[in-house]
Amino acid sequence: MEGADAKIRRARQHLEQFGVDSTAFLRSRKHNFASKTNETEAWIVYWTDDAIPPTDLSAVIGDCLFNLRSALDNLVCGLIHTQNRQHSCAGRSFPIYTNAEKYAKVRNNEMGGVPEAARKVIDALQPHQRPSGSEALDPLHILNVLCNRDKHRSILLTTAYSKNANIVVHTNDGRVHRVTANRVLRGDGPEIIPLPLRPALVSPSVRIEAAGTGVIVFRDVDGPWGERTVGEILTLCLTHVAERVVPVLRPFFNT
Fold it and tell me: What are phi and psi of 162, to 5 degrees?
């Protein structure tokens, strides 16, 4: 268990580092708001300077994911060594499958040498065991997909204001109007925020203030993580491995 435990501790350190670095980056950005009108409508254009986080931050995320994924593979090798200390563990890994048929084809090869009782525990942890339609939401599947993207492609990041960002508009009649954005405001391109105000109240320009919580999300939203923040996803994966996977396999190392 020493190797797996060490990798989980390292993943936790990377997650903490991500929190520190991402907070510093988000605080450093400049938010820009400009009022626009035509004859009948008024709106705000929002954008940020330095919308894309530094590449080093992406590397920290990849390190966190890699340590979690390799901790699982270390568990399989450790389980093999409880039976045969001389086994090289070559070709062995912790399988993660959303499809039961594909899993059945590789189960015995990927976990060759693992005690059958431990294999059955890993069987129960598979994403394909979830209710139909929710397999891709399993934290192990999310971890596997993100780790593979980091290794073979790249994890592209973007920033976003929080949902329900509060925008204060000081109009030309001396009044203050508050507008709540009902969606995530991404920082990597201009966002249009409609204003329920007459154009004359904001033309030619007015003072605009905003308050919200800056967050970092994955640019690719085609995965099961959707719009959830990077911090939420990393915490989900780490918690699942540390509290749901490791505890049910640890007893096999104590016999």
Answer: -70, 160
Q: How far, in Å, CA of 125 to CA of 107, rounded? A: 13
| Alpha helices in 49-161, H assignment, sequence order | 55-81, 100-110, 116-125, 139-152
Question: Phi/psi zone of residue 162: left (φ > 0), alpha (ψ -120 to 50 degrees), beta?
Answer: beta
> Is the pTM of the predicted complex or chain greater than 0.90?
no
pLDDT tens digit sequence for 124-154:
999 999 999 999 999 999 999 999 988 877 7
Partners of residue 89 on adjacent β-strands: none
- Whose tokens are 């905003």? That residue is 210
- Asked if 5 and 74 touch (Cβ cutoff 8 Å), the reply is no
Nearest to 238 by CA among 120, 71, 20: 71
Torsion from C-alpha of 136, 138, 142, 144, nearest 10 degrees: -100
Alpha-carbon distance of 182 to 77, in angstroms, equals 48
**Per-domain boundaries in the chain:** 2-253
